[in-house]
Amino acid sequence: MVKKIRALYIGRFQPYHLGHHRILQTIAEETEELIVCIGSAQMSHDLKNPFTAGERVLMVTSAIRELPVKSYVIPIMDIERNAIWVSHLVSLTPPFEVVYSNNPLVRRLFTEAGFEVRGTPLYRRDLYSGTEIRRRILAGERWEHLVPEAIVEIIRACDGIRRIQDLSERDTGE
Ligand code: NAD
Q: Element (H or E) spanning 149, and its range?
């Protein structure tokens, strides 16, 4: 029996965008099963991390539905100790053989733990980036073309635009 390759991809997805999507389309061609981990799952309602883990699970699940591989979407909370973060993640996911990431810390930790780590090309990082999309939402600029259509609906449905705008306001006190 041919052994299946199960790959892992981790991101914060604040929000999920077309750069993430393009990579996952490529990974889906190279592997049989895909685990997508939602990093920093405990974070939400701040300007860098406006969306909850649940909202991000919905984003990723909706976007990858079209991919021709069996997928799992799993939120992972950060922990204070990098040295045991990989074991923490492994305890929460199905077994996997390959990790796809460009994040230097993520790559280092998985390499030290004995996993094969593969890099991925970057697609228009100036445009397809969570930072740029959040900036555009805040500035009232066009951002919808930078994410898959399903993500636009999810951000609107959770009042994400007003949430980001509200979070940027200063407490003027009363
Ligand atoms: P991210 O969403 O910034 O990026 C995810 C991946 O997508 C990266 O490999 C990145 O290079 C790629 N990407 C982004 N834009 C792209 C584009 N335009 N084209 C192609 N690829 C693009 O997420 P991240 O910061 O890499 O996520 C790592 C997560 O792991 C974080 O949540 C972090 O907190 C967590 N982590 C936690 C610990 C700990 O708790 N001790 C340790 C290490 C990592």
A: helix 149-157
pTM, 2 dp: 0.95
> If you search the block for the tokens 């920093």, which residue do you land on?
40
| 100 Cα: distance to centroid of ligand 1 (angstroms) | 10
- Tell me, what DSSP letter sits at residue 83? G
Q: Using the atom order of ligand 1, give the atom closest to the CA of residue 128.
A: 18
Residue 59 near residue 75, CB atoms below 8 Å: no
- What residue ranges of the chain have pLDDT lower than 70? 1-3, 171-174
Residues with C-beta less than 6 Å from any ligand 1 atom: 10-13, 19-20, 23, 39-40, 78-79, 82, 85, 101-103, 105-106, 109, 120, 122-125, 128-129
Domains and CATH numbers, the chain: 6-168 (3.40.50.620)
Biggest CA pair distance of the chain: 69
End-to-end CA distance of the chain: 69
CB neighbourhood size of 9 (10 A): 23
